[in-house]
Amino acid sequence: MNSDIILNRGVEEIIERDHLEKKMAQKERLRVKLGIDPTASDLHLGHTVVLRKLKQFQEAGHQAILLIGDFTALVGDPSGKNEQRPQLTNEQVQENMKNYLQQAGLVLDLSKTEVRYNSEWYKDKGMDFFIDLTSKFTVARSLERDDFQKRLKENQDVSLLEVLYPILQGYDSVALKADVELGGTDQKFNLLTGRKVQKRYGEIPQDIITLPLIEGLDGIKKMSKSLGNYIGLTEKPQDMFNKIMSLSDQLMVKYFTLITDVSEQEIEKLKAEQANPSDYAPKEWKEKLATEIVRMYHGPEQARKTQEEFTRVFSNKELPTEIQEISIGADALSIIDLMTQWLGVSKTEAKNLVNQKAVQINDEVVTDWNTDVKIGDIIRSGPRRFVKVVN
Question: Which residue segment(s) compose the domain that 95 sits in?
């Protein structure tokens, strides 16, 4: 892996760049750390931005360290939060991280990855350790972060656990003897604290690399499972493809750059076309992005089939080869009742979809809430959701 790609493609900031470039030029084998707290049960494309950067270091011969923060997840990372994060139980953390390695293995070569859990060192630490660790920092410095300042100005609480979080994350770098730590731009305060903790323990401070956060399907907020705007790594190929096709045009360059291996030349071509709208074909670029991402996580054959299915349904206006079935247990049922059962929405939300002319029965747009569906009818909601009514 070319060091120029590692240090530049998709990178927001490097501290300290000169120091890191020198170590890489000298062919030192670096210990590169990425920490992920299991606060949700699935990884999504947003996680792959930093996972892929870790993979680049791994392919260049460095030691990739994937740290799963099963202890720090109990504390709760305050980064980017405008209110106190609900505290997780140990049972919730254990449940969340069941599939983390399998999903991280879709990006990393786990056979060459040092996988660690920070409960390894924290579970046996006594009060003397925590007294020593916390005595090395002041409350004033810990409260400098923007997240805390904003909440304090709005008279919102900041818990002592949240104040401790970056210090605990920083000690992870001491325990792992990290040379480099990766993180999103929202992690900068925590990463810098890691450098300070290492200094306090007499170690050479790690270099840090921050990477951009990617916006989710709404095109506004960062991708997050809690916001429902995410694309999961283990989603069905067709769902993954369809979601990508709904992305904003403005996100194309960012997604190609951060979560694919498409060449810089191809990305420059995309930029040039976007700058000249008469040359720009957004649907073609989105199909290329969707096909590439499905290929990465489901293989080339599935990517081909998924693209063909999309063309059949959305370009040729044909039905999907596989359609979900729903039993109504009667000869007929109102479209509103069917949608509440099928989509799990309220009657008000179902009526809004009808009002927006987003619902069809056998290719006919529904305009009346009281319309009934019958056995054998095929219902379409929006561009991507189909269901067949059965007894």
Answer: 3-211
